[in-house]
Amino acid sequence: MSLSSLLPGPLGFGTAPLGNMFRAIPDEEAAATVEAAWEQGIRYFDTAPFYGAGLSEIRLGEVLATRPRDEFVLSTKVGRVILDEVEDPAARDLGEKGGLFEHGRPNKIVDDYTADATLRSIEDSLKRLRTDRLDIVWVHDVAQDFHGDEWLAVYETARTGAFRVLQRLRDEGVIKGWGLGVNRVEPLEVTLDLDEPKPDAFLLAGRYTLLDHERALQRLLPAAAAQNVDIVVGGPYSSGVLAGGQHFEYQQAPPAVVARVERIKALAAQHGVGIKAAALQFSLAHPATAAVIPGATRPSRIAEDVAALDETIPAAFWAALRQEGLIAESAPVPAV
Asked: Which partner from 47, 126, 154, 269 sits 20 to 30 angstroms from 142, CA to CA?
């Protein structure tokens, strides 16, 4: 299945922030943000049990349950099961992403990529989302940033568990597609080398952005394009630092990253280019990319994202970025 034929457009909505990522968001603000996305014409929504221990799914489901199910595309993830048992959200071991959802629900989060856990996770997500079906299911975070040196062992559990379950569900028509949703390129490169199972697409967060794209360009994106495996780009603003935020890789941005962002912004200002437009259009310019899914917690941000896609960016801006070594020589840029 081609994800491009399933998705309603190049812009979706990533709902990790609705799980109280970085800050506690009032329910009313979360609902208004989803409503704004709908009103702006967005019809692809991505979520995960991990986002606030089910909070993002619950909040998204409350709004989408009032909309015709056939009018939108919905994806969530497997690999973590949310329990009724509670824990201290701030004390969770999240590898490199410590404290990411410390404002989320206190329900215990258990990593489990087995076949049984995959089916349970899907059933639980359907309940939280108040829907009868999912369109796309991603295997979540089976990578180094969460599992360290053990990531390949975790990956093998997912390969023989979650991967095969999702391929069967796709072949049976229960879901329309599946793939991996990760923040690293290596698990995706490994997956493309498998004889089976074969994913339909990948959700790659933070690794094909205006700020960080060299590694993905080397092998992953050419191989994905050659195998017709579409890429959804998550985190196109690099955790927010490209759009005025303070975070990169979900943590406080280091000085070197801030300095690079300032150089990009200076060139954007010289050419009259909005930084959001540059970020979104860069990620979409690669032929392997099917969509971008920036996140938001304020309704006004959605209109900014929609407008950014329509902004005209002069070729001189992209040429200046190349000249300054701020984008790779081999990176495709939008046609004017």
From this structure: 126
Q: List phi, psi (to 5°) of 89.
A: -60, -30
- Averaged pLDDT, 11-33: 95
Query: Which two three-digit tokens encode residue 273?
Result: 């280019």
* Burial class of residue 194, CB neighbours in 10 A (0-12, 13-18, 19+): exposed
Asked if the model's pLDDT at residue 206 lies above 70, the reply is yes
Q: What type of residue is 334?
A: P
Q: How does strand 13-14 pair with strand 44-46?
A: parallel
**Cα 196 to Cα 140, 167, 168, 190, 283, distances in angstroms:** 19, 9, 12, 11, 28
Classified as helix, coil or strand, 70 is: helix
Can you tell me the distance from the alpha carbon of 321 to that of 48, in angstroms, rounded to the nearest whole number? 35
pLDDT at 277 over 70: yes
1 confidence band (pLDDT: 50, 70, 90): low
The alpha-carbon radius of gyration of the chain (Å, integer) is: 19
User: Apex CA 83: angle with CA 78 and CA 87, to 5°?
Assistant: 115
Interatomic CA distance for residues 261 and 280, integer angstroms: 15
